[in-house]
Amino acid sequence: MSANDNEHRGLLPAGLADLLPPDAAREARAIDTAIARLAAFGYERVKPPVVEFEESLLGGPGAALASQTFRLMDPVSQRMMGVRPDMTLQVARIAVTRLKHVERPLRLSYGGNVIRVRGSALKPERQFAQVGAELFGVDTAEADAEAVLLTVDALRAIGVAGLTIDLNLPTLVAAVASGLKLAADPLRRLRRALDRKDEAAVTKALGEDKKAAALFTGLLRAAGPADTAITQLKKLKLPASGAAEASRLAEVVDLVKAADPDLPLTLDPVEYRGLEYQTGVSFSVFALKERQELARGGRYSAGYPEDGVSEPATGFTLYMDAVLAASASAPEQPRLYLPPGTAWREAEPWQAKGYAVVRAVVTASDPRQEAKRLRCTHALIEGEAVPL
Predict the structure, then answer these.
(1) Fewest Cβ atoms nearer than 10 Å: which of 40, 148, 213, 233?
(2) Alpha carbon of 282 to those of 170, 253, 275: distances in Å?
């Protein structure tokens, strides 16, 4: 085998990558930090498998991720399985099956890797780590606000500063359209116009229905800082179902601001793309200095409505690659070179002082140079940790 052939062994499929030192350790520490913060608020960790049967993984809200799921045949059962594209779906399955008899509200957390069929222009990675939490069995504004505030808490604990929350209500347009009894065809055209933020197209999609056009144009304009957006929403004469959803959103905003008055909140009440399985107040989190989405969460129906098994839930997911890119790097652990012949028990006192010890396994003529070659910051010389 030639050297060029060996180099090809290191090539990976597009969107996949090896995580090397020190980044792998940094990601592991960040995951542990986030899980610890979730545990501090009563969220208990679960660990679902990497693959599971297709009908379980892609049932209920999982159908929205069917096109992003790798499939394979289980050679044992001869049934189709899917590789998880998102861990929320698996945690929801656990809640409504294995833990269905546990008292509600049920709080669960998770952390692990997912893989998807394709990336996007902004996020080309196809495999990445997720950490998240889910709150099952209650449908209240307090639960919605807890999901937002816990996301912020975990991100700050990892070291991400300057966060902003983009709140959404992906079911609002459908609720208003239902209250106005809009037909399916104009509703499809309206949805496309709202996705493009195109007021003229909104008016055109609704034809002669001036009342509906004014209402949806008002919704489109009710985007921006949460305070002014909520004020704008309250001025609109929404049908009862839409007014109830807008009122719930306003309540969540009040709860979040009461807990964290300085947290920047923005609102886009007509945003829908990427939130297809959300059933209520939803949100995305960004760092003020970064364009990439750090986390996403919101309300959904956990379980399998097609089987008559579902319950209200809300939660969030942190996308750890984006989180680490936006967070400050912690100082690397100092590495202490221990020369040949150092007793094994002598490592522990130095480890207790914060050093990672690197024991010599070959004799070197120059311990200092050998320590530098092994990327050590210090060398043990005459019983002292000497900086290099």
Answers:
(1) 40
(2) 7, 12, 8
